Amino acid sequence: MTDPIIKLAVEEDFALGDITSDNIFRAGDRCKAVFVAKEDMIVCGGEAAKQVFEYVDPRIKFAQLAPEGAAVKKGARIAAVEGPTLGVLRGERAALNFMQRMSAIASVARELSAIARKYGVMLTDTRKSQPGMRKFDKYAVRTGGARNHRMSLADGVLIKDNHIAAAGGITAAVKKIKNKIGHTSKIEVETKNLKEAAEALKAGADIIMLDNMRPAEIIKAKKLISGKAVIEVSGGVNKNNLEEYCKTGVDVVSMGALTHSVPAKDISMLVIKQKINKGDKNL
Predict the structure, then answer these.
(1) How far apart are CA 164 and CA 172, in angstroms?
(2) pLDDT of 1
């Protein structure tokens, strides 16, 4: 079954037809094309690309030449597609868009999760993903070797600053939610200083997020919490300072940068073989 987001991606490109291809090629023309990595990357998004072509024309055959999560060098052929030329060209851009974005996220996740693992820290994403693309973004994060934070608001209790402000404080917010949820659900509280971290700990938080706190303050918070709650660091973490945060000895680092602003990887689809059906009169 084709994913609705993939259908939408195809339809926004092709709903009104393809004025170029429709006036050059006949229905019986066929071609073969390859997807080539134009830079080093971690491959991701092959299944999405496959669904694009199958939705455009079920006769198109898509083969992933480099498996998901494989590290490839510039110039590597990572996939091939073969079938009716009209369908192959109609699906080209949507397929590339998925693979370029997902390979970019997987590549960043691979690089940064390797840094975090050196210090025994779990690296996770956040919900800062492209609208409609979250499941693809989070799949790419996992493919790269990092972990997922919440997929949606239903996936875990996370009491953030606006919850705290609206509820009248950390203690009040934790108390209210403890009276509503079951014993199997963990409670995470976002804090922005040592005073709030202490209040969250006293209120019974299972996970304490240290938000936008500098490493020196995080070390103090770690001593304060002293193993009584899981410590997550978030806010202001990037490729350049990740190692500094991991050295503090926290349990989890969550990074919006894994998904919200990753530059797409450069991948091209190149036609390498074509067969023109000169006798086709369908046009």
Answers:
(1) 8
(2) 81
Q: Could you give phi then psi for residue 237, rounded to 5 degrees?
A: -90, 135
| pTM passes above 0.90 | yes
Whether the predicted pLDDT of 280 surpasses 90: no
Examine the residue annotation and report whether 61 is marked as an active-site residue of this protein: no
User: In this structure, what token pair is assigned to residue 269?
Assistant: 């689809």
Percent of the chain with pLDDT over 90: 94
Q: At what angle do helices 46-56 and 85-117 cross, to 10 degrees?
A: 160
CATH code: domain 113-258 is 3.20.20.70
Which position has the token pair 């680092």? 253
CB 3 within 8 A of CB 133: no
Structure-token match 């200083």, residue found: 193
Q: Same topology for domains 4-110+264-275 and 113-258, yes or no?
A: no
Query: Residue ranges of the domains in the chain?
Result: 4-110+264-275, 113-258
- Distance (Å) of CA 109 to CA 30, 168, 241, 259: 38, 37, 15, 9
Given 32, 128, 192, 247, the catalytic residue: 128
| CATH no. of 4-110+264-275 | 3.90.1170.20
Residue-wise pLDDT for 224-272, tens only, equals 999 999 999 999 999 999 999 999 999 999 999 999 999 999 999 999 9
